[in-house]
Structure formats: structure tokens, C-alpha cells
């Protein structure tokens, strides 16, 4: 994002318009999207590092990323899926092959990482044993890292560049659950840059 984009965003979220997308601005973004102050601060600390690392730094990429995560996490209020996870029991497509895997590997983090196979894959790629310690994905800072890695691994920056909310939603959700809410959040966040 250029300085003008960042300044517009800062005005929209009510922080000093200095043109620097840093921790304070990101904290305000998370709060405006619904996170409590403590969670917003923790998410922002991680995002401040990882958005740059994973090239989520253009206006469209930023808007799509935050819209999808806000939907998945109930506006950053939930870092662990509210449902028990029993609906994922026996889902071989998620790698849930052992009894209890559905509950153990239910959605966590702002992107709601789900399934033994995903916990194994992203844990191995990030050098953290998520498979044997799945609840750590619910830590906001760890969950933000996972979200950025998932975004990158699924080439979602490319689809954000094309403003393709449908493909992004399918790659995150597996379908189009909550599609209207995702589109509404995307429109709202895009409006912050005007």
C-alpha cells in the first residue's frame, strides 16, 4: 500500500494519519473489526511482521485477507470454533482418521485451521508441532502466522489481485458458506480506503 492508502485507512480506523502501516494502525483495524483490545494488540503484533513476510501488502490483498479472517473468526472474537468439532469426525478429506480427531482438530486461529492433515502440514512447514499440540493454533499470534502461511500456500494473493472473492472463499471454506457476509465485510473494508 502506498502512503495515501495507509493514511486513508488510518483516518477510517481513528488513528494518527502518519502513513505508516504499523502495530498501532493494525491494532485499530482489528478493534474496528470486533477484536477486544488485548486480542487486537496480540493479532497486530503478529500481523505487523507476517503481512510483510507473506506479501499481503497491497490494498486488495489487505482487504480480502481481513474480510475473510473477520468472517471466519466471528469478527476476531473467536480463535477456536464454537461448535464441538464432532461434525468433522471421520472426515478423511481433512485427515481425521482416528477417533476423536474431529474435536481435536476443529477450527482454530483467525482462519479456522481445520483437520489433522492441515495441522500436520502447517505445523511441519512452520516448525511447530501443531499435530500434537493443536490448541496452540488458537493463540492469536500463532493463529495469525498460520493464517498468513495458509493464505500464501493457497495462492490467495493472486486471487485477491483479481478481486476474486469467490475463489478465495472456496479455498478457505471449501464452499461458499457465509458468502454474503464475506462480500459485505470486503465492501466495508474497501470503503475505508476512500
Quick synopsis:
The protein is an all-alpha fold.
Report what the structure shows.
The protein has 194 residues and is mostly helical. The protein folds into 2 domains: 1-77 and 156-194, no CATH class; 80-138, Endochitinase, domain 2. Helices cover 56% and strands 0% of the residues. The chain has 10 helices and no strands. Helix 2 (23-32) crosses helix 3 (37-53), helix 3 (37-53) packs parallel to helix 7 and helix 4 (59-72) packs across helix 10 (179-191). The radius of gyration is 16 Å and the shape is globular. The two termini are 13 Å apart. The mean pLDDT is 97.
Basic shape: globular
Count, helices:
10
Structural class of the secondary structure composition?
mainly alpha
**Total domain count:** 2
What would you report as the Rg, rounded to the nearest angstrom?
16 Å
Helical content stands at 55-70%
| Count of individual beta strands | 0
The percent range for strand residues is under 5%
Mean pLDDT: 97
List the helices and strands in order: HHHHHHHHHH
Q: What gap, in angstroms, lies between the N and C termini? A: 13 Å
Low-confidence stretches: none
Largest sheet report: none
